[in-house]
Each structure stands twice: as C-alpha cells, then as structure tokens.
Specification:
The structure is a single chain. Strands 1-2 form a two-stranded antiparallel ribbon. The two termini are 36 Å apart. It contains nine helices and two strands. It has 190 residues and is mainly α.
C-alpha cells in the first residue's frame, strides 16, 4: 500500500507536467508525414546499418536524392549527405521497432505497411518524444522563474504548438531533435 500511495502522490505532484507531455506527444503522434528525401536518407542509413552492417546506402540510394557519391578503388560508395548524429541516436528505437514489426511481417503484414509503421513509430519514439520532453523541461524552468503554472503552461503550449516546433516535431528531421537536446541541456544547466 505504501508504494501505491507514493506513486499516486508523485502523479498528483507532477500532474501538470504529465498532462502537458501527453497532450503534446499525442498531438505529434496524430500526424504522419511519410518520408521525403531528408527523412529517407536517414532511414536508408539506419536500414543499412541494422540490416547490412555498413554505413553505405548503396542498396537503397534510389530512395533519396540527398546522397554523396564517393569513388574509391574503382567502386562507387554512396552515403547520405546528412549529419550522422540523429541517425546514430535513433538506431536503438529503429532496431527495436524493426524487430517487433518483423514478427507482424512474418504473420502476413504487407511490406509497404511494415515500412510505413516503422518510419512512423521511429519518428514518434524519437523526435516527437524528445520534443514533448523538452517542452516539459522548459515548462519546469518557466514555472520556477515565474511561479505561475498557468502562464508557464500557456507559453509552452504556444511555442510547441504555435511555431515551427510543431510541424518539425512530426518529421524525422534533425531540426527539432537538436532543439530538444538544447532545451534539455538548458534545463539541466538551470
């Protein structure tokens, strides 16, 4: 009974943060943007790393125009022209989701649905998740600075739903991912 009471007290204490987090994360998860060249370059490299154990995307380069051709020893090596940070940080959720969805694929899930689910869920569990967590971190900073939970919550909602932070939280771009990491670093330094 003591642990249950402690959990209830903890949830009651951080109720606003939980509501804010769930509101933003659910809102971001509602939208699915599919993939274009930017996202495809990153997903192709994660696919090459996980399935082929290489950084080269030679087998998948037709999927994106955001590539670099590097000739070495008479052969063409193709890489995405994106910074690798987000790709490497997203490997863990991509791999876990890929393994989980592979079981569904073995049960007859069509290949196109597998890839759409994989890209959607990877985006939700990386960019969208970290953006919502960053919003909560900034809310806590604002709450401490202003001592006003309503103004702090309104400011966070206005920024995370009323600026480019919103659409970038639904895309597998590094823009919002980097912004979320900066917000988290600011919170930790504060």
């Amino acid at each position: 009974m003591g642990a249950e009471t402690a959990v209830k007290r903890w949830l009651r204490t951080y109720r606003t943060e939980w509501i804010l987090f769930l509101l933003l994360w659910a809102t971001y998860a509602y939208f699915y943007q599919s993939t274009h060249h930017n996202e495809a370059a990153r997903f192709d490299q994660m696919r090459a790393i996980v399935h082929d154990r290489t950084l080269e995307i030679n087998k998948y380069w037709w999927n994106t125009a955001d590539v670099i051709h590097y000739a070495k020893n008479g052969s063409d090596h193709i890489y995405p022209n994106k910074a690798p940070g987000m790709t490497l940080l997203s490997l863990v959720p991509f791999t876990a989701l890929s393994l989980g969805l592979s079981a569904l694929r073995a049960l007859g899930l069509p290949g196109w649905m597998y890839w759409h689910l994989l890209t959607y869920l990877t985006t939700v569990f990386t960019v969208s998740l970290f953006s919502a967590l960053a919003a909560v971190a900034i809310y806590r900073v604002l709450k401490q600075l202003t001592a006003d939970i309503y103004l702090s919550g309104l400011a966070v909602i206005a920024i995370w739903l009323g600026t480019l932070a919103f659409p970038f939280s639904t895309l597998f771009f590094s823009h919002q991912f980097a912004a979320a990491m900066l917000a988290a670093a600011f919170y930790l330094l504060f």
